[in-house]
């Protein structure tokens, strides 16, 4: 009886196993699962390597697809952020002469080369050292001929009967040092200018290099013209006013140190004020200001020239101020017309 009871049970188990095997064999999806499980359990099989059986996708393929989607979303976000930054930069620096001057295209910089900040500082140090040595040599040479230079600068008042006095023991000595320093700086300025140009030329565009020669020559010519104008016209007129104003009341006995301070400051300030057309040319080249805009503010220029003349001239007499304000106004108007007809009248090249 026990054996008879065991046999039906064994038969039912074998029947269930046969039915299960038949179900697995009849369903393709179940066959795929069985194969995938067998491959994962067998030697050399791996469940996560991305096997496709019966239309199923492995976990490894799902992770790859998820990573690909995430990378595409990240790239889209980066492109969107770059577009936003570009729009903001266009709002801050619109497409005009200033933006082209600040951010020139690479093809306009033929001599541009990458250098670290330390390389730039080392080059700047070397060029400063050369400039200092050149100015020092020029000052020493001028000190040797200091007496001749002092006699030359005293000529504007020779005919006025002015006498010079040294009111302290070392006044004349320090006056010779001052005159030698100013004259040495003037003689060493070409070396300084050359070193500055050599330092900035690699970062200039082709159009800026074409403009460099006229700017340097024009600036040098205007500076020396200002010195000559001050020595020949402005200084004698100012000194003549002072002497004639005090005539018959006091005798003109001037301190030699204060006289040379007056003359040297007046000459150098006049030379610097003659740089107005050069500044206008640079502003017009960068597109910040046009010639018409410069001409439209001529009333303010007249007032500003009078104020600048009052500040630059050491004297307080109106004659000297008018003598300096007149050339300043003339130089400004000439520079404005030059920008209008030389720069703003050039045809604009249309980009494709």
UniProtKB/TrEMBL annotation:
It is found in: Membrane. The keyword Membrane applies. It is a multi-pass membrane protein. Keywords: Membrane, Transmembrane, Transmembrane helix. The chain crosses the membrane at residues 128-146, 179-201, 221-242, 262-283, 295-312, 324-343. GO terms for biological process: intracellular protein transmembrane transport; protein transport by the Tat complex. One of its GO terms (molecular function) is proton motive force dependent protein transmembrane transporter activity. NCBIfam families: tatC. This is Sec-independent protein translocase protein TATC, chloroplastic. The lineage of its organism: Eukaryota, Viridiplantae, Streptophyta, Embryophyta, Bryophyta.
């Amino acid at each position: 009886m026990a054996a008879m009871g065991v046999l039906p049970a064994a038969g039912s188990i074998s029947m269930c196993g046969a039915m299960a095997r038949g179900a697995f064999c009849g369903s393709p999806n179940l066959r795929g699962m069985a194969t995938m499980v067998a491959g994962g359990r067998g030697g050399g099989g791996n469940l996560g390597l991305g096997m496709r059986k019966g239309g199923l996708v492995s976990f490894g393929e799902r992770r790859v697809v998820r990573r690909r989607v995430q990378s595409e979303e990240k790239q889209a976000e980066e492109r969107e952020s770059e577009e936003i930054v570009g729009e903001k930069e266009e709002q801050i620096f619109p497409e005009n002469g200033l933006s082209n001057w600040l951010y020139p295209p690479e093809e306009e910089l033929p001599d541009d080369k990458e250098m670290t900040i330390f390389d730039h500082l080392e080059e700047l140090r070397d060029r400063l050292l050369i400039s200092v040595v050149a100015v020092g040599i020029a000052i020493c040479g001028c000190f040797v001929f200091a007496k001749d230079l002092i006699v030359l600068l005293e000529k504007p008042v020779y005919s006025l009967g002015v006498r010079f006095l040294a009111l302290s023991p070392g006044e004349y000595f320090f006056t010779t040092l001052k005159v030698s320093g100013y004259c040495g700086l003037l003689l060493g300025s070409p070396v300084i200018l050359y070193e500055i140009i050599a330092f900035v030329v690699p970062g200039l565009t082709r159009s800026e290099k074409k403009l460099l020669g006229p700017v340097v020559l024009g600036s040098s010519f205007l500076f020396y013209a200002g010195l000559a104008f001050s020595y020949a016209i402005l200084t004698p007129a100012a000194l003549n006013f002072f002497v004639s104003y005090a005539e018959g009341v006091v005798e003109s006995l001037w301190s030699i140190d204060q006289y040379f301070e007056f003359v040297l400051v007046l000459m150098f300030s006049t030379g610097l004020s003659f740089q107005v057309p050069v500044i206008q040319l640079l502003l017009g080249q960068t597109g910040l200001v046009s010639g018409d805009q410069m001409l439209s503010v001529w009333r303010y220029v007249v007032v500003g020239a009078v104020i600048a003349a009052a500040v630059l001239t050491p004297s307080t007499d109106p004659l000297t101020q008018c003598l300096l304000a007149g050339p300043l106004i003339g130089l400004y108007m000439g520079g404005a017309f030059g920008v209008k007809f030389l720069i703003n009248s050039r045809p604009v090249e249309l980009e494709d």
